[in-house]
Amino acid sequence: MYGLILAGGSGSRLWPLSRELYPKQLLNIQDTESLLQATFERLERVMPASNIISMTGVKHVSNVKYQLSKLYQNPIVLSEPTSKNTAPAIIVGTKFIMEKTESDPVILVLPSDHQIKDIDGFEKTVKKGEKIAQKGLIVTFGIKPSYAETGYGYIKVDSEEIESGFKVNKFVEKPTKEIAEKYISDGNYYWNSGIFMFKASVLLEETKKCTPEIFEKLENYDFSKSNEIPYIEFDKMPAISIDYAVMEKSDNIALVKLESDWNDLGSWSSIYEVSPKDENGNVIVGHVLDEGSKNSFIYSSSKLVATIGLEDTVIVETEDAILACKSDKTQDVKKIFDTLKKQNDNTHLVHKTVYRPWGYYTVLAEGKGFLTKMIQVNPGQKLSVQSHNHRSEHWVVLEGMAKVLLEGKEHILSPGHSIDIDVKEIHSLQNPYEETLKIIEVQKGDLLIEEDIVRYEDMYGRV
Amino acid sequence: MYGLILAGGSGSRLWPLSRELYPKQLLNIQDTESLLQATFERLERVMPASNIISMTGVKHVSNVKYQLSKLYQNPIVLSEPTSKNTAPAIIVGTKFIMEKTESDPVILVLPSDHQIKDIDGFEKTVKKGEKIAQKGLIVTFGIKPSYAETGYGYIKVDSEEIESGFKVNKFVEKPTKEIAEKYISDGNYYWNSGIFMFKASVLLEETKKCTPEIFEKLENYDFSKSNEIPYIEFDKMPAISIDYAVMEKSDNIALVKLESDWNDLGSWSSIYEVSPKDENGNVIVGHVLDEGSKNSFIYSSSKLVATIGLEDTVIVETEDAILACKSDKTQDVKKIFDTLKKQNDNTHLVHKTVYRPWGYYTVLAEGKGFLTKMIQVNPGQKLSVQSHNHRSEHWVVLEGMAKVLLEGKEHILSPGHSIDIDVKEIHSLQNPYEETLKIIEVQKGDLLIEEDIVRYEDMYGRV
């Protein structure tokens, strides 16, 4: 069996903790590992790590690779050159697996940003689905609804069984409250989890029937020499979901009920729902001081958050943005996100702290002609060999030891020591030691942007 | 006429905007100037600036002097060596004025942290009060209550007039809701504003009668050589309020109704009350994005605050602490403040940004053995000549030019240039130029506290 993890995402729903460049699946929400990492580990229960392929947008490749590399030495991450919804990604990914393996395996596709805690139940469902997929059906995983949710799509099944799954009658879009309630009382509707399985050749055959405009373009892909998805070919494909392209049109679909818990963590309210609560019904994370609040979600990532007498309220504090929201309005977080995007306010896009393969940096202060960062380089890591056309840099070591290469000369700096890097000088920062390295960087120049970088060498393949 | 501004305060009620070391009167809440500065200007309407004396605790002297020096070249600020409530401060301040002027003037005493916008009405009341004070009465300013407030003291007056003011019947403590409502319907109760006037000799005479244990100690004060209030003498005085020491016991008091608006800005709710509101009843200050909130107070000092669907809620964002509070619970802010104080959490004490006579600094990052600040030195200002026993410092200029004196040698640094200051080296930082100077300071050492400073010379008298 092979696995295809869909690791894209806009980062809008859990703003300000998620950002466009750091979406939900990369976050550690309730755990020491991210949702993406948990998804990868879940798949490892049913297949070898080498059989797992992740697909994500160009913007997220570096972070996805970095997180997965902590679980498996050489994770395969395919980069979608442009945003085309799920159908092109899944179908091209399927073609990739067929070509690379020269076989016709069963493929399990799953989103990277859902929470499933009962891994045994998940494994049991996958094993059941695999048998049905082997028989030539596309298997979709349905979740027995526990209430009349209006934020999910539903799948209606017939009572007859098909190869020990339910025969799918139809896929339906997000319903109104009344319709959702009818679905629940009818009893033959399931939530659409976005998890499904199929034999590779079966998906391609169904695509040929249901969406020939995608299928026809597949012949231009050739993964024999590279893992790159060609931009020009991919861009020609229509931007549609796999539900719309295949699932809703095919009559070759069976539904298997997911035998585990499941939560899409699609809003702060759903995070609140799955979190352990104190005796006042509050979920409190981080440096928080509360006086008498009830049924509230209070999350501090760094600063002190003091709350008094709140009810049914969500407070999320991050280094550069704070959200305060009534619990029943958390779906409107997306409106805030979209407004910021429209206003070109970077608060939707990145955090003050930006994670890199080698560690992270935090912007401490910005002003006319200068920018100050704190940079952490993890043990054994090295920033690319680089130069800048518009800025000089000044580094001061705070903790650990820095190995600096400047114009071919090596300097070893201990805490309190500093070095100047002039415009255009070729330099690199390295931490070959066992202790974490922290430095202050003061940038000076007329143009202080991340894009002002010429890379000569990079251990993470970013040249 | 002379003026005595009481400029002490704990900083607890408007936390996190106010701090113990930066209380309410130093804040610019709705204006470009602070409440203290507005108080000083209000007094300037009725007396020359040279007649205004301010009194405050040791901790606040530097900030009070700095703010007042923007309005008047050489403001007189007396430092209360220890915290003794209002009576000792006012009585010693009165003695100071009598000795310095060798006369017996009328003195107007007023708190520094109240808001009065109708200065003409204030001036009219003072003129009326002055006439009554000249006749030998202590005049207290009363505010006609507009509702049954339980947070203020009340003054009951008799219907008979005394020298065109009301004869005071008694002072009463903060009442319960029921009693406050009775006061309102009775009609002969006023709020106690804490503003009063008297001839200097009259106050001392009344003190002699009412609180001889304070009066007797006055003879040990001698201001002929210095403006310093001696610690040992002041510390012997009882810590009591002027109401308790004199006003409640004397029967020589007249009440004059304050002919202006008045607000003590004693909580976030009262700030909300006096602020202009948008069509949804919200008061929004700073970088805020709102979706459908109502009747809320949302204040951002630096970061983006996004609010969705809040009602009757107060959100206050500062660089290191965020308050989220139901509007009817703002009096509980003091509980948070007290808890922080008990926990030795400095968030009650100082801001990340600390104002100094020469500019300000902001703590950017702290860690094991290091501390990074951004320091702004205003044009023409100079930090004290100093050294440190436990830390080295590294300075990088960001904006402007720095004149650095290091072990007797002068260095002029332009942006991007840096200098190292070793443990125990004597140094000073100066900005003799017209542009603002900004530097990054990286401190390194085993003990990184503000108290590790030896001052040799200081243009603000802090040696």
What would you note in describing this structure?
The structure is a homodimer of 463-residue chains. Chain A is α+β, with helices and mostly antiparallel strands and 463 residues long. Chain A is built from eleven helices and 27 strands. Chain A has a six-stranded antiparallel β-sheet with strand order 16-17-18-26-21-24. The first copy, chain A, has a five-stranded mixed barrel with strand order 5-8-6-7-9. Chain A has a four-stranded mixed β-sheet with strand order 10-12-14-15, covered by helices on one side. In chain A, a hairpin with a 2-residue loop joins strand 16 and strand 17. The mean pLDDT of chain A is 92. At the A-B interface, strand 13, strand 14, strand 15, helix 11 and strand 17 of A face strand 13, strand 14, strand 15, helix 11 and strand 17 of B. Strand 13 (304-308) of chain A pairs parallel with strand 15 of chain B.
Mean pLDDT of chain A: 92
Class inferred from helices and paired strands of chain A: alpha+beta
* Widest sheet, order of strands of chain A: 16-17-18-26-21-24
**How many angstroms does the end-to-end distance of chain A come to?**
34 Å
Q: What is the CA-atom radius of gyration of chain A, in angstroms?
A: 24 Å
Strand composition percent of chain A: 25-35%
Helical content of chain A (DSSP H or I, runs of 4+): 10-25%
Which two protein chains have the largest interface (Cβ within 8 Å of the partner's Cβ), and how many residues from each?
A: A-B, 60 and 60 residues
Gross geometry of chain A: globular
Q: What's the oligomerization state?
A: homodimer
Number of helices of chain A: 11
DSSP strand count of chain A: 27
Spans of chain A of at least 5 consecutive residues whose pLDDT stays below 50 are: none
**Main sheet summary of chain A:** 6 strands, antiparallel
